[in-house]
Structure to design on (415 residues):
């Protein structure tokens, strides 16, 4: 099994290009199920999760062609409407085929994604929304079965904003009869990216990026050709790495507008952040200052950056209170960071981090995607060698992170 070795103490220095966003690519690729023609997507990141969704689309008999970062998908002859357990358990975002399959074929059978390392992650709001559009939903043998002749628009309120729940409902409503209004929806940039694709396909989706989305259903859609937006979490991860003492990391091909909360926090900890049109430069201070942070739905500070930020706070001067409000179990990286010498106490959804002068390298275990990224950052700043095991989590969502970091001067390699 692969592991990543990091020899600490070499600050990142140099320019890095940010890849396409995983969490934008996954829903956009599944939106191909809504059309009969051949869709073309550029800037698709090379990730395990993208491979998993392509495998699922191929399983449904869509034709999938990959040429570097361009992916073409044609779903004219769908032969199945089932996402089996073996594919869904690899990646819970497979639930994103539920809405489009139901809209296009009138039925869908999708294995229920279980909980995962970071929380229970229910899909009750996806199901409630789809049933409001007229779908009959049954749960049997670990599968969600949904059926409807043609979905009919309705007014739907989400109890909490859910990213993939909003996306599933958008993809279902775009082919429904009449108007659907989705309220208290997620406002992430990935939602806007999906709306742009659906509109390019001939859909009528208004208000994405606000908390109310209105969708006027159409009877059919045409294929689209789009480029995936930059990955704001990959960008944030490199920004956090560059903010470590004496780092200097200009980022290319990113979207600073999507990173306001992260830029704001990095400035508070003492990093010098310069923002340009499509690039950001982060210069780390001699010593980081502790600040508090609370994760929130976009445009708040992203939960997907909480673990990486905790590493900065682990070596900052002072005391930092971190509050995680999105997922109930997203502190699994804490015990690994403690093995490197971090002083962190967790109580419920709060983590108190007392900055220490130095971390010291040790073998650690990656437990989920963003936790893995935090261990790499900790390895960069720790004295000596850190060995990050189970890096398949990392490969799910970061395109060659160790190669990109090595090109910036870090002593990091895969074994
Ligand atoms: N929730 C419910 N019921 C639902 C759906 C969600 O109670 O039916 C709750 C969740 O338990 C959670 C909150 O709503 O407390 C928000 O969860 P959300 O549904 O927004 O998360 P998600 O759509 O499953 C996406 C990203 C995650 C990211 C979260 C939050 C994708 C494929 N995944 O997950 O990304 O952390 O939004 O921003 O877009 C990652 O990339 O590492 C990752 C975990």
């Amino acid at each position: 099994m692969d592991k990543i070795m990091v020899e600490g103490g070499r600050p990142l220095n140099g320019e890095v290009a940010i890849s396409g966003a995983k969490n934008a690519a996954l829903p956009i690729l599944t939106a191909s199920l809504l059309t009969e023609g051949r869709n073309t997507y550029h800037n698709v990141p090379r990730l395990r999760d993208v491979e998993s969704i392509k495998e699922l689309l191929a399983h449904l008999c869509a034709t999938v062609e990959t040429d570097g970062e361009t992916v073409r998908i044609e779903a004219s002859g769908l032969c199945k409407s089932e996402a089996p357990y073996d594919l869904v358990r690899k990646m819970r975002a497979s639930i994103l085929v539920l809405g489009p399959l139901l809209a296009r074929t009138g039925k869908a059978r999708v294995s229920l994604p279980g909980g995962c390392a970071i929380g229970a992650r229910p899909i009750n709001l996806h199901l409630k929304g789809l049933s409001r559009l007229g779908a009959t939903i049954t749960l049997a043998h670990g599968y969600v079965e949904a059926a409807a002749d043609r979905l009919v628009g309705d007014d739907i309120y989400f109890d909490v904003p859910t990213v993939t729940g909003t996306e599933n409902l958008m993809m279902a409503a775009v082919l429904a009869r009449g108007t659907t209004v989705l309220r208290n929806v997620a406002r992430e940039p990935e939602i806007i990216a999906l709306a742009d694709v659906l509109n390019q396909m001939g859909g009528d989706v208004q208000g994405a990026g606000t908390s109310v989305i209105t969708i006027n259903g159409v009877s059919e859609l045409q294929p689209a050709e789009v480029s995936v937006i930059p990955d704001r979490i990959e960008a944030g991860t490199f920004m956090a790495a560059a903010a470590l003492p004496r780092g200097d990391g200009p980022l290319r091909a990113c979207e600073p507008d999507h990173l306001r909360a992260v830029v704001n926090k990095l400035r508070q900890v003492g990093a010098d952040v310069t923002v340009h049109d499509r690039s950001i430069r982060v210069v780390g201070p001699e010593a980081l200052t502790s600040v508090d942070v609370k994760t929130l739905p976009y445009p708040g500070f992203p939960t997907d950056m909480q673990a990486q930020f905790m590493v900065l706070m682990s070596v900052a001067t002072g005391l930092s209170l971190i509050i995680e409000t999105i997922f109930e179990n997203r502190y699994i990286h804490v015990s690994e960071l403690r093995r490197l010498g971090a002083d962190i106490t967790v109580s419920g959804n709060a983590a108190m981090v007392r900055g220490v002068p130095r971390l010291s390298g040790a073998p650690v275990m990656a437990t989920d995607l963003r936790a893995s990224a935090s261990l790499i950052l900790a390895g960069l700043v720790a004295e000596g060698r850190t060995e990050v095991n189970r890096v398949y989590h990392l490969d799910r969502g970061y395109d060659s992170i160790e190669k990109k970091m090595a090109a910036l001067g870090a002593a990091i390699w895969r074994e």
Observations:
- The domain at 22-227 is CATH 3.65.10.10 (UDP-n-acetylglucosamine1-carboxyvinyl-transferase; Chain).
- The pocket of EPU is lined by residues 22-23, 26, 93, 119, 121-126, 160, 162-165, 186, 303-304, 326-327, 369-370, 397 (CB under 6 Å).
- The chain is about 30% helix and 25% strand.
